[in-house]
Q: What sequence folds into this?
């Protein structure tokens, strides 16, 4: 990637983050591209240089967060850590990314309502890929004898991801706990569900 391409990609990420904040505050349906552009001190024409329309903007918000999420969990899955450490790291990584990119994550909610056609297929496939990485970690832990072999992997994954995603409903930067403290606490409690008693 050339320096110019890197600059454009960086600019686009900055726009996506700022746009997601505006959309999360005002609601996707109730916000026009003109309002998003005005909030970013850009012209509507400049916005259309990067995005075809509001749906494309939302889809690219989803893509950016999913790309970051997949990159992080793939690093965990492909590491040489033991399954307990992998699950701990996957949980912490999810919470730290979700809390640092809160507006972006909130814009990803309910893809079935926000996308259609190829966009919906791609969004659902990325989510499935992400979820299956948790399945892989759980399966590895069972095979290595460190996780309870009686667990229902799919159900445990639903519980873990449900808990992680719910964080966004109550997390506040001004809250009594830092994102790191919350991540550590979640990892500690969720691991108890699967790790065999030593």
A:
């Amino acid at each position: 990637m050339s320096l110019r391409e890197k600059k454009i990609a960086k600019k686009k990420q900055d726009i996506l983050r700022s746009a997601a904040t505006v959309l999360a505050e005002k609601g996707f349906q109730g916000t026009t591209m003109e309002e998003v552009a005005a909030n970013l001190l850009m012209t509507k024409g400049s916005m259309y240089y990067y995005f075809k329309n509001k749906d494309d903007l939302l889809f690219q918000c989803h893509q950016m967060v999913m790309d970051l999420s997949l990159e992080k969990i793939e690093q965990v899955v492909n590491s040489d850590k033991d399954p307990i450490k992998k699950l701990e790291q996957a949980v912490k990584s999810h919470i730290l990314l979700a809390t640092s990119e809160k507006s972006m994550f909130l814009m990803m909610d309910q893809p079935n309502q926000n996308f259609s056609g190829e966009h919906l297929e791609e969004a659902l496939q990325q989510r499935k890929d992400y979820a299956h990485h948790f399945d892989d970690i759980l399966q590895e832990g069972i095979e290595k004898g460190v996780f309870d072999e009686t667990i229902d992997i799919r159900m445990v994954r639903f519980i873990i991801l449900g808990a992680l995603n719910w964080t966004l409903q109550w997390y506040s930067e001004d809250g009594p706990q830092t994102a790191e403290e919350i991540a550590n606490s979640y990892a500690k409690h969720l691991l108890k569900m699967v790790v065999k008693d030593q």
About this structure: The two ends are 49 Å apart (CA to CA).
